[in-house]
Write a structure and sequence with these properties.
The protein is mainly alpha-helical. The protein has a single domain, classed as Glycosyltransferase (Alpha/alpha barrel), CATH 1.50.10.20. Helix content is about 40%, strand content about 5%. The longest helix is centred in the N-terminal third of the chain and has 17 residues. Its cofactor is Zn(2+).
Length: about 525
Amino acid sequence: MPLIIAGRHKRRVRFPAASLPPAVISTPATAQQQQQKRPGNQVPSPAKPGKSGKPSKSESSNSSTMATQQEPRPGIPALFTQPPPIRDPLVTETVELQDATLERCLEFLKGLHISQGSFNASGVPALQRDPHITYLYDSLEDYPEGFVAMDASRPWMVYWALAGLTLLGEDPTRFRERVLGTLRPMQHPTGGFGGGHGQISHLAGSYAAVLALALVGGEDAFALVDREAMWRWLGRLKQADGGFSVTEGGEEDVRGAYCAATIIALLDLPLTLPHDAKKAREAGFETLTDGLAEYLSRCQSFEGGISGSPGVEAHGAYAFCSLACLSILGPPEETIPRHMNIPLLLSWLSARQYAPEGGFSGRTNKLVDGCYSHWVGGCWPLLQSALDGKPLSSGAPTTTVGNLYSREGLDRYILSCCQSPRGGLRDKPGKSPDSYHTCYVLTGLSATQHHHYRTNTSISSSSEFASAFSWQSSPMRAVDNVYDKADRLVAFHPLFVIPHQAAANMRLWCESNPIAT
């Protein structure tokens, strides 16, 4: 049944077919008038489509040349309007892809693309809040039959949409009954949640399900999880090297480590290993967290980044999973320096942010992608906390290492390049939006807008995870921002990727309702 919000009939979700010609998007008259008034900033005319409905090669070339040659809008630093001064002379497929991406992004970064609307004094487009909200409401409705391939990702689709809506200021609790009805059949009697009805339990799907339940909140949502069965299932996933497999008999990687640590912390599960945790007990472990930090340490690569498992390529998402897991296990100023080579890690993470794009790539020699606004961008608050040292009893630290990356660059990439004019956020210009990118691009934007720090005060009465529940946030100073106040998003917990209060509510309810072991 279509959803009715604020008296409006919400349309069903629609996804553009690859075979259809791109829609012509008209710039509002007010925006055109504003653009014409600004000296030296002529808006390019849209390219005329060829027979196929797509611009011809010459038209695409003209558009790229126009983006390079035409003057950018006022207020945009040269760093974000010019190609890098040092270019790789070796021409490879990777270099050609990077050059093409750079040309496409420059048109948006300079404020010259016809789909962009009004701009502020810094030359940054406004956050299109209402279209993004509509897009996310649509994503909670019916999907085309081609999306059957996503059937194993149902908990994720719920979480991505609810998290995005929450960031934009919407109330996710109105979906409580629908979320309970969706997730209840996915819970396996032997513990954990599957990706769909009747599917085996998976740590990634269980993580998304627990976060979705935390977002909608309430005793019914918290009580839906069979915490004893979850605890026993996690014991069976615990491996002899300290890590976790993502499903029984499945692969082991740092995703499993982070998802398990999040579930254990939010649900206040016992740390003692269940009796049937054979692999872990045979290795001499006594708790679910024994050997976990050491496993993560072995995943740091020679580059300095962090890989999914020891000995493979470093990846931005695995870096976040590892640093967040370490920060759940203990104070980041203790756990991160003890188990990671911070200078090498800083070097690798810094190399993930590109100029002039301003966004992050996920791996060495790869293109920028909006989702890494969270996966890489989310690493910086954790590292900053580790370098700032022990927290104060209350309030933000008086001295800090400060910004370790270009917040302005990421803000410009997200607001200029990642917004789809029809609603939703995307990987980069030329890509279609989806709820995954919408969620994590917005999460990254929220992280740039807030200073995350720890205090000595925790909402948890447990000493094991007191540090994980001691995080607070405050808005960044307006003088440092290139976005307008109206574009500010809700602050999310830097470890659990839900609002601070949602994490606190689930943890406190579980503490007050301990499970028998």
